[in-house]
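>> Question from a student workshop board

For tomorrow's exercise we were told to take the sequence and the ligand below, predict the bound structure, and bring the output to class. My setup keeps failing. Could a helper post the expected result so I can at least see what it should look like? The ligand is magnesium ion.
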Amino acid sequence: MVERFVDIEKVGGSIPPRITRRWQAGQLVERNIDVVDAGGSLPAIVYDFRRWQAGSPSPRTKSMQKTILSIETSCDETSIALIRTHKTDTGISVDVLAHIVHSQANLHAEFGGVFPALAKREHGLNLVPVMLKVIAESKEKENELFKTQIEASIETKEKIQKVLEREPDLYEHIVQHLLGVSGEGIDVIAITQGPGLEPALWVGINFAHALKVLWPHVEVIPVNHMEGHLVSALFENNVIKTPNFPMTTLLVSGGHTEIIHMDSWGSYTIVGKTRDDAVGEAYDKTARLLGLSYPGGPEIGRLAERARVEQIPSPVELPRPMIGTPDLDFSFSGLKTAVLYAVRDNEFSEDEKAGLPANRLTAQAEWQAGLAREFEEAVADVLTTKLFKALVESGAQSCAFGGGVMASKYLREKLAEKVAEAGSNIDIYMPAHNLTGDNALMIALALGVRLHHTPEHITSTDSIRAIGNLKL
Ligand code: ADP
Ligand code: MG
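>> Workshop helper replied:
Here is what the output should look like for this input. Compare the format with yours to find the bug.
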């Protein structure tokens, strides 16, 4: 198998020449300037940015700067970001030119969870409006961006139509709004490949492929959504910090609960994970059982906080599943079942439901708040215990957190306390609140890390496929 390593350089002009190289046993044996087309004959393309990293002389230094457009559609957020990155002594400096997140959560609320066919349809309707907002926002920062007008040929239109044969809404929107827009200035498109809902992922991927037809100079590179959650913790004051390794990361979202060990950039070992439900899923299912709306995390969090402030006790004792097992795995489905039994065993009279004292919670609401508190404490006990064990076992110097559940103030506090207990020298990285849930900025940041720290790990095929259960 011939492997090709491709270097895309921007040596002053706007359209980068491409240089293909052939390597054998680590040696460069062939170097050609040519165009690697998307003909399908190449098994994989690996982007080789190594020489830039080595600090090659000007004008290459300029090409260390990368402008990344990222697209995220793995679940129920349609999001696009545009960032510019370059490497500095302390990490990767990032200029966020635009970042738009459009949540569909209110549409899915009536189903009590994300409905995949609806998510797919909504992404198709939302992507171009979100892209237009990104264009407007980035032009405000830099009016040179998206300035040039282009005229798409009939052939281009037909190709886009073919790429989008399953997304007619998206095709119509592109024809109406994007055909004249130039992607000059954008180097790479980062697209979420998985994990996530495959129908939803496909819409974003097809959109990225359509943009590639319109803007042939842009490369499209797949990104792992979980890598995005992880990297977002390291993003502080417009810099992606380089942590001291080894680093342990706890990722807690609607679909995942994982502890990841890293010895260096790009080396991920999943040392613990849930055997059934993810933490976010347990929050959402518990909320549903309590008659609260989707997503359940914020609702449960609010009730639990109220119970703590008003000292409302837990009405039942919920289990702490797998808390004492010698491994780093989790199980949260039993928690939801225990909540189900507790709810079933509690019938409230109409008077109690109506709540007699006007300024007091009703008996039912107090009961719910107490249960939410117990639920959140059970989750915190399990997560902190397993994280502590992971930190001690790995000798971690840094500890990072990511995923939608990290929006919980209570969990943030409890987890940070436990990290300090495991070692006062362990650096803690928490994501900004707006980067805990799904968003495209984290996808761009994850690609930024790869481009600048581990370019040898960047692989792409000519056409990217959605992978619902993609692993880190
Ligand atoms: P996924 O990538 O799996 O779709 P996200 O990373 O977007 O998930 O996280 C969504 C999950 O985060 C939902 O299950 C939601 O209930 C949970 N969540 C959101 N806010 C909070 C919160 N304040 N406390 C606990 N969980 C939360
Ligand atoms: Mg997520």
